[in-house]
UniProtKB/TrEMBL annotation:
Membrane association type: Multi-pass membrane protein
Family to which the UniProt record says this protein belongs: Belongs to the binding-protein-dependent transport system permease family. HisMQ subfamily.
Keywords per UniProt: Amino-acid transport, Cell membrane, Membrane, Transmembrane, Transmembrane helix, Transport
Main location group: membrane
Species the sequence originates in: Phytopseudomonas punonensis
Protein name stated in the entry: Putative glutamine transport system permease protein GlnP
Job description of the protein: Part of the binding-protein-dependent transport system for glutamine; probably responsible for the translocation of the substrate across the membrane.
An example Gene Ontology molecular-function term: transmembrane transporter activity
GO terms of biological process kind: amino acid transport
Amino acid sequence: MAKQKKAQWPWHLLTGLILVLGVLAIWYSTSLISYEWRWNRVPQYFAYHAEEAQRAADYGRVESVSRQGDDAVVTLLGDSGEQQQITVASDSLQLSDGDDVAEGDVIGVTRHWAAGPLLWGLWTTLWISVAAGVFGLLIGLVTGLCRLSANPTLRHLSTVYVELVRGTPLLVQIFIFYFFIGTVLNLSREFAGVAALALFTGAYVGEIVRAGVQSIVRGQDEAARSLGLSAAQSMRHVILPQAFKRVLPPLAGQFISLVKDTSLVSVIAITELTKSGREAITTSFSTFEIWFCVAALYLVINLPLSQIANRLERRLAQSD
């Protein structure tokens, strides 16, 4: 007799109940400190209407003003006889027909949508994560292979690098790289931040690669060598492809951690997502709302990475 499948809906109901209780706990906690939620202040930190002042280029007078919907087109006649047309928002117009203008006088403003500090911080976090991840992967691959090398110098130097990086905090490494190495070599803070993150990630990726390669049975290499492949060809075409399937989950976890570790580069004045959130709090006084948004943006980055890694892992498993 086939075993009956247990109903799953009670567990789904319990999960939903726990999540609801968590939300209620947060609401109750904020009510105890009389916190007033101001979500209406948050959208401007994602995108806002920026105003750009339009100024007269020369001395002259206003020849005409015409309305075009919400805009006003101002025609200026300069003392040199040249005309200048300026389009501004109608409600910002500060002159009328026949008024005299001087060079640099504000005619009005134009408005356009602009990215807010949280979006700029998100962009900075993304490009720093990608740059540090790519270089960290290359450094880690070389380090992992050096850890397995028969050459004692390569093996010892890679071991010193891995143990030194893994044994010290990332925050200290960022300070050392920026204030010492960066000062000596005249590096920008962005370069120093990416380099510190790449070296930190490379040490952990190196250990992941080493463990992955060592997990492949020695018979695979012996079989490849018996077919006439060199040691490098065996590693490239036989060992590494198999090791990659095994190290994909820890690699994905390492790169997800890298995205979160980018928050530490704010200590050297790089305005990434966390620093942008702190700056937004100083002007909005909406502490909880901004931090919840910052946390949600990190999730927006990391959840797709996790899903892509899981899907790729399943696909590679099917190809075995």
